[in-house]
Amino acid sequence: MRIMIGVIQRHEEEEEGLMELINRAAGMEVKRRKRESSERRMVMNFAISELTRGGQMVIRRFIPSHERQRLNYPWYLSLDSDDRVFVADHRKNTVILLDCDLKWNRVLCTTREGKEGTWVPFRLCYDEEMKILIVGGAVAGEVNVYTLNRN
Question: Among candidates 22, 45, 145, which has minimal Cα distance to 95?
Answer without folding.
Answer: 145
